[in-house]
C-alpha cells in the first residue's frame, strides 16, 4: 500500500514548537494551488508557504522489524514555510534559476520545468542544471536535398523537409510565447509575495489563468516536438 507524502520544511522558531505534543497546524491553499497560509495553534498567523517540485524523487520506506522494509511512497514535493519578512535563501535561488531558464530558452534550449533549484541533500544543489542537458531543441543545419521533377523520391524528400520547416517555425513561435508567459508569471508572483508581505489581499485569478495558458503552450510544444 502506498501513501501520499511530502517534505515539510519549517523555520527554526517553528521547528522548536513541533516538540510540543499539542502543536497543530493547517495549510490553507490559495487559488493557485501552490502557495497559501500556514496556520498553527502556538504562534501568530504570520507565516506563508510555497510548494516546490523536487528535481529528484525521494523514496520513502518503513519497517516494523528493522529487517524488512516496505516502500511507502515516492516523495516529489516539498512545502516550504517561511516568514514573508524573512524569505529563505532558496526563494532567492529560485528567482535566479528562473532567470537562467529564461535566458537559456531565449538561446533555444528546451525548458527543464518549474522545479526547486535544489534537492534535499548538499550534492543535489542546483540539480536541475546538472541533470537536464541544455542543448537546443533542434540543431540549426539543413541537409542538401536533390530536387528533380522526374525523381519521385526526391520530390517526397522536399515535401517532408518543407513540412518539418513549418513545424520548426511553429515550435519557435511557441517557445517565444512560453518565454513571455513565464516572464509575466515570474513578475506576477513577485508582486503577489510583496503584497502578502505588506498584509494586503491578493487576487490569484490572473496567476491561475496564466498557469493554465503556460500548461497549454507547453502541451503544444510537446506535440510539435513529436513531429520533428
UniProtKB/TrEMBL annotation:
UniProt superkingdom: Eukaryota
Protein name: TAFII55 protein conserved region domain-containing protein
GO terms for cellular component: transcription factor TFIID complex
Coiled coil: 164-198
SMART domains, alphabetized: TAFII55_N (SM01370)
Pfam families (UniProt xref): TAFII55_N
Keywords of this entry: Coiled coil
Domain TAFII55 protein conserved region: 2-183
InterPro entries for the chain: TAFII55_prot_cons_reg (IPR006751)
One biological process term in Gene Ontology: transcription initiation at RNA polymerase II promoter
Amino acid at each position: 500500500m502506498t501513501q501520499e507524502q511530502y517534505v515539510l520544511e519549517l523555520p527554526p522558531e517553528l521547528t522548536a514548537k513541533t516538540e510540543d505534543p499539542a502543536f497543530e497546524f493547517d495549510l490553507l491553499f490559495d487559488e493557485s494551488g501552490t502557495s497559501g497560509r500556514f496556520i498553527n495553534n502556538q504562534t501568530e498567523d504570520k507565516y506563508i508557504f510555497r510548494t516546490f517540485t523536487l528535481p529528484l524523487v525521494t523514496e520513502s520506506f518503513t519497517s516494523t522489524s528493522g529487517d524488512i522494509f516496505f516502500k511507502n511512497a515516492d516523495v516529489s514535493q516539498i512545502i516550504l514555510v517561511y516568514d514573508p519578512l524573512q524569505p529563505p535563501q532558496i526563494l532567492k535561488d529560485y528567482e535566479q534559476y528562473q532567470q537562467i531558464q529564461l535566458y537559456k530558452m531565449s538561446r533555444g534550449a528546451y525548458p527543464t520545468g518549474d522545479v526547486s533549484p535544489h534537492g534535499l541533500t548538499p550534492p543535489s544543489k542546483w540539480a536541475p542544471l546538472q541533470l537536464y542537458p541544455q542543448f537546443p531543441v533542434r540543431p540549426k543545419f539543413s541537409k542538401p536535398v536533390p530536387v528533380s521533377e522526374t525523381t519521385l523520391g526526391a520530390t517526397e524528400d522536399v515535401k517532408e523537409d518543407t513540412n518539418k520547416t513549418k513545424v520548426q517555425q511553429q515550435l519557435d513561435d511557441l517557445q517565444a510565447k512560453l518565454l513571455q508567459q513565464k516572464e509575466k508569471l515570474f513578475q506576477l508572483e513577485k508582486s503577489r509575495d510583496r503584497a502578502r508581505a505588506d498584509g494586503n489581499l491578493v487576487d490569484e485569478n490572473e496567476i491561475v489563468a496564466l498557469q493554465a495558458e503556460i500548461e497549454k503552450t507547453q502541451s503544444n510544444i510537446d506535440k510539435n516536438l513529436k513531429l520533428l
